[in-house]
Design brief:
The chain has 692 residues and is α+β, with helices and mostly antiparallel strands. 26% of the residues lie in helices and 23% in strands. The longest helix is centred in the middle third of the chain and has 30 residues. Keywords: Lipoprotein, Signal.
């Protein structure tokens, strides 16, 4: 029974199981060895392991279906023949070499890294092209090339992390130089020579930096500050080249105006200009002023008190006429900065005069911190009002102050001048009763921002003259343009001008008395309040504005200089295009008849006197014109007892000093009417010839 059961069991197991069971029963039991934990393979690399021994369990092929030995490091276990393995290794290397163009291009700005990587590719190509290369040679070449590729990535990242500022500046520079062709093509005009030369220089510096790359093959890496300087210049040019061109055009064709800025005057003096002043510049001595800066002020009638006047609340930019009265004291100086994108030589202009006749004047300037240069004032020099200026063609030119900033816009007429440079190096000695214009040659101007600093030479018992707004031009042919702006002379037309209008409010001029002032007129019906008229009052006559009579009063009011009747005058400057006889036209305000006398020192006994008609009120504005006697009294007599026969005044080509006053009428001095802008018109040659 027992035997029967055994046979039955064996039949259930089957023959195969029986054989195995039999074999197991005939051997010594063996303790099973646990399988090792799988270890993650490292990141695949293109460096295959050397050929292992084949056969059996020691490296044999674990895929019995292939019938070959096991190759655990073979990237394609199915290729078991040496030829197949060699072909696979060669293809792996060839594919890796195929990345050369893409990879090498990544390091165009890193010459040293690029060179090393290119060499690695070259070595790999040599191995790949070697028909006798072994499997080990090919695998080793792939490993070496991959290592070089990985190192290039690492080196680039390390360099960028360690030189972030340099990389940023360099990247910006690469983008900035793309504008080279466009920028340079737009600089063919002669006015832009300096811009083109400087840009060409900086584009050259940029090319040198970019050619050497961030990481040169030899030598030091670029200095970050040097890269930033070049990048900033070109980037600035890309953003502002049109402004630079406008600046160069303005300096060549016109001028750059820099109005005086009290904030740029360093001084211990803190007192303000006299509270009652309007003109702030006089043809009489100012004795020991305690202020060093003064600006023209416009006044108006106090509300409810027509005979009392107060300063206008918002002066704004009604006028920029101002003066620096003094540069006395240690470290006292006045400086200003201007933009220059023109030539390296320029011309500086400014109005000047003496505070008082006894002043011993001296003035010096520094350009961009260089050694001081003394300005030579000499009585032998010719002042602008004495020399003959050239014709003006009247074209309008926009000018700007700047910059950064180049920034205020001024319209001026294009003109030329025959002044010679040697004469402009010496300026006539200042006087109290005349405004003169200094002309100074500036050498070695920088491209960009320049700073001029004025002071009085130390160790000398001298004082500075009063000085006004500053003007810079890159040529000495623009004298007339400068004069016209200083004295606010406006030509009537571009070609062959025949008349000049003097804007009294905006032009430099001189009063003789503290009461003379600028008055904002608005008619009683308010029709012109949005565009008021500005008049000059208290010319001639007696009495003081606001009844200020004492020589020194409280509240910072000063009743000097003090002159009345025929000595209370207004001095203006008229820059006419031609010699000839000129009619005079202007607006005026007066209730009763009053007279005006215009005198010029250009020729002896050259004056015109006439009486304007009163309007029986102080709210109606009149317009006189000597050409047709509009609003001029012709039936009566002038102060001399003779009829107003003369209709014109003789003016010489160029600047003319014209003194306006009032004379006795009917044995009294009522004074002149309030007067507004004055227009001087040349008598036509036909009429002039007929009068001979």
């Amino acid at each position: 029974m027992k035997r029967k059961n055994i046979l039955k069991f064996l039949s259930l197991l089957g023959m195969g199981s029986f054989v195995m069971l039999a074999a197991a029963s005939c051997t010594t039991p063996v303790n099973p060895t646990p399988n090792p934990k799988p270890t993650p393979n490292p990141e695949p690399k293109p460096h295959p392991m050397p050929n292992p021994p084949s056969g059996g369990m020691n490296g044999g092929d674990t895929n019995p279906g292939n019938g070959g030995g096991m190759m655990g490091d073979n990237p394609n276990p199915g290729n078991t023949t040496p030829e197949q393995q060699l072909a696979t290794a060669r293809k792996t290397l060839t594919d890796l070499i195929g990345t050369e163009n893409t990879n090498v291009a990544l390091y165009a700005d890193y010459a040293k890294i690029q060179s090393t990587l290119s060499t690695a590719y070259m070595t790999a190509k040599t191995a790949s092209e070697n028909t006798n290369a072994t499997l080990e040679n090919l695998r080793s070449a792939s490993t070496t090339l991959q290592t070089a590729i990985d190192k290039a990535v690492s080196d680039k990242n390390d360099f960028n992390n360690q030189n972030a500022d340099l990389v940023s500046a360099y990247t910006s520079l690469k983008d900035a130089v793309k504008s080279e062709t466009t920028n340079l093509e737009g600089l063919s005009d002669a006015n832009y020579t300096a811009i083109k030369d400087n840009l060409t220089t900086y584009y050259g510096k940029a090319k040198n930096i970019l050619t050497a790359t961030l990481y040169p093959e030899s030598g030091e890496i670029p200095k970050v500050d040097a890269v930033k300087v070049v990048n900033n210049f070109i980037t600035n040019a890309n953003s502002n080249i049109e402004q630079w061109k406008n600046n160069a055009n303005m300096l060549s064709d016109s001028f750059l105006k820099k109005t005086l800025d009290k904030e740029q005057l360093t001084s211990n003096a803190e007192l303000q200009q006299p509270a009652n002043y309007s003109f702030v510049a006089y043809n009489q001595d100012i004795t020991n002023p305690t202020y060093n800066f003064a600006k023209r002020v416009v006044w108006k009638p106090q509300e409810g008190r027509s005979s009392t006047y107060v300063p206008l609340e918002n002066q704004g930019d009604l006028t920029d006429v101002s003066w620096i009265y003094s540069l006395a004291g240690n470290e006292t100086k006045y400086s200003f900065t201007f933009a220059n994108y023109g030539t390296t030589t320029g011309y500086l202009y400014f109005p000047y005069k003496s505070v008082k006749s006894s002043d011993n004047v001296a003035l010096q300037y520094k350009l961009n911190g260089a050694s001081p240069v003394s300005i030579d004032f000499n009585n032998s020099a010719i002042s602008p009002s004495q020399e003959s200026a050239s014709d003006a063609d009247g074209s309008e030119v926009a000018t700007t102050a700047d910059d950064s900033s180049a920034k205020s816009q001024v319209k001026a007429e294009k003109a030329s001048s025959t002044s010679d440079v040697s004469r402009s190096a010496v300026n006539s000695a200042p006087s109290v009763d005349e405004i003169k214009v200094a002309k100074i040659i500036l050498s070695e101007l920088k491209f960009g921002q320049n700073t001029i600093e004025f002071s009085v030479p130390t160790g000398q018992d001298k004082v500075a003259p009063m000085i006004g707004n500053m003007y810079i031009s890159s040529t000495d042919k623009n004298d007339n343009l400068v004069y016209n702006d200083i004295f606010s002379n406006i030509l009537d037309k571009q070609d062959e001008p025949t008349s000049v209008t003097v804007n009294l409010l905006k032009g430099y001029s001189l009063a003789a008395d503290h009461s003379t002032y600028f008055y904002q007129f608005s008619s009683s019906n308010g029709m012109n309040e949005s565009n008021p008229t500005y008049l000059v009052g208290f010319i001639g006559g007696r009495g003081n504005r606001n009844n200020l009579n004492s020589s020194v009063t409280a509240d910072n009011k000063v009743a000097s200089p003090s002159f009345q009747t025929s000595d209370r005058t207004l001095t203006i400057y008229v820059n006419v295009p031609k010699d000839g006889q000129y009619y005079i036209k202007g607006s005026y305000l007066t209730s009763d008849n009053r007279n005006l006398k215009f005198t010029t020192t250009a020729t002896a006994n050259n004056s015109i006197t006439f009486t304007v008609k009163g309007k029986n009120n102080w709210s109606t504005l009149g317009t006189f014109n000597t050409a047709n006697n509009n609003d001029i009294e012709t039936s009566g007599s002038s102060s001399s007892g003779q009829a107003n026969e003369s209709k014109t005044i003789k003016l010489n080509k160029g600047l003319n000093k014209v003194v306006i006053g009032s004379v006795m009428i009917n044995n009294r001095y009522p004074g002149a009417p309030y007067i507004g802008n004055l227009k001087f018109t040349l008598m036509s040659p036909t009429i002039m010839e007929a009068k001979k």
